[in-house]
Amino acid sequence: MADDLTNPLVRLITERMPWLFADHRFKIVDCSYDARSFGNCIVTLESEALRLRFTRDRGISFAELAAQSDPEYWFDVSVLLRPILGERPDASFEGTALLLKNNFPDLVQALGPKFAETKREDERRKEELLGRWAKPIPFKFSYSAGSNWFKQTVTGSVVYVALRLLEIGVVLWALYTVFTRR
Question: Would the pTM count as exceeding 0.90?
């Protein structure tokens, strides 16, 4: 951790969140800082109950939590707080620090005894979100099947008619040009 003295995120965490170290016995276990790459930095902390990772990427800061039982499965703090608070909070660094402090026991429960349930709910939400975008395509990859499916939608039929009219216009223009030049 040679760059912990130059890492601005380490200083920010130690200055503004001393309660993490004093009350919950977190220790900094890893950090990185790259001044040449937009000042991107990562700080990973660990306690007996949780792992906490702060990331600043191109000026945007966010925090993630992981359970000690599955230390590589990270949860965004604001997403993890959604079932606890009833809504997804949108917070800056200071707001995230306050959310962590005010909801720490609930977060420990969510990533401790209730970890399996929390992970299941997170995967369900991801599936629900991705399910809207990752639905299988209802046709094989052929031009005719794709065009038939596209023509059955309102947008597709409008685009199809417009393209057909354009095609007719080009053919008529070509015929007019050929026969008027004689």
Answer: no
pLDDT tens digit sequence for 17-37: 899 899 999 999 998 888 787
Considering the domain architecture, whether residues 88 and 166 belong to the same structural domain is answered as no
pLDDT of residue 166: 94
State how far the alpha carbon of 60 is from the alpha carbons of 68, 85, 93, 113, 151, in Å: 26, 23, 9, 31, 43
Is residue 82 domain-shared with residue 152, that is, in the same domain?
Answer: no
Q: Do 27 and 93 reside in the same domain of the chain?
A: yes
Q: Is residue 138 part of a domain?
A: no
On whether the CB atoms of residues 28 and 41 are closer than 8 A, the answer is: no
Helix, coil or strand: residue 98: helix
- Could you tell me the residue range of the domain that residue 168 belongs to? 147-180
Nearest to 13 by CA among 104, 96, 111, 110: 96
Distance CA 153, CA 145 (A): 13
